[in-house]
Amino acid sequence: MSTWLIILLIVIAAVVVLGAAGLVARQGRGRRGGTSLKRRFGPEYERAVALHDGDTKAAERELGERLERHGELRERPLDGAERQRYADLWTAVQERFVDSPKEAVAEADRLLARLAEARGYPDGGRYEEQVEALSVHHADHVDGYRNLHRVARTGGGTEELRSALLGGRALFDDLTSTEPGRHRAPAGTGRTTASHGGRTHARTHTPWALHRSRPKES
To answer: Is residue 8 in some structural domain?
Structure first.
């Protein structure tokens, strides 16, 4: 075999090997990226996949772009007076629910928008952008806000309104929390746990809706 033919075969083999290595590396990055996005977004990941009819690549592309746009956002902390003011406003919303469920849900929607803006998110006038940013940092509870916003505009029966308000409360608790490491039970259980120095403390709150007269169907 001539020398030039040997050299040509070596070059071809090198190109094939390098191409295969690049493909494996890209596939590995894609798998790691997908796993990372799934871990970060949790229920938002599943929602994005469903909205893209099961196309995980399209969903991951959307979530990756969302993360790039809002991942560097740093929440502005609330001082004690602000936190108390928002807590009082939410309590007033819950009390209003007894007699005026629709109005209470609409007010809760507006209150969450103002609270998110106070924490440094886009203002409520840019709802879609605000929710997109919230989904990056509060993926576990942002869908409750979406549902609250939807029901505030479309209305519904008392139980649907109640469920929407409870879902919004989960995000409200996240945004007003002073405990970044705290882990919550599902909305409506009234139970919150917080981890401090390896110990777990449980907080139990009386579910507000269970000890009030049942509001009239709207």
So the answer is: no
Write out pLDDT tens, residues 84-138: 999 999 999 999 999 999 999 999 999 999 999 999 999 888 999 999 999 999 9
Domain encompassing residue 113 = 80-211
* Domain assignment present for 3: no
Asked if 131 contacts 168 with a C-beta cutoff of 8 angstroms, the reply is no
DSSP string, 36-63: HHHHHHTHHHHHHHHHTTT-HHHHHHHH
Give how many domains the chain has, as a whole number. 2
Asked if 165 and 148 touch (Cβ cutoff 8 Å), the reply is yes
Give the side-chain half-sphere CA count within 13 A for 192. 15
* 218 is a domain residue: no
**Model pTM?**
0.68
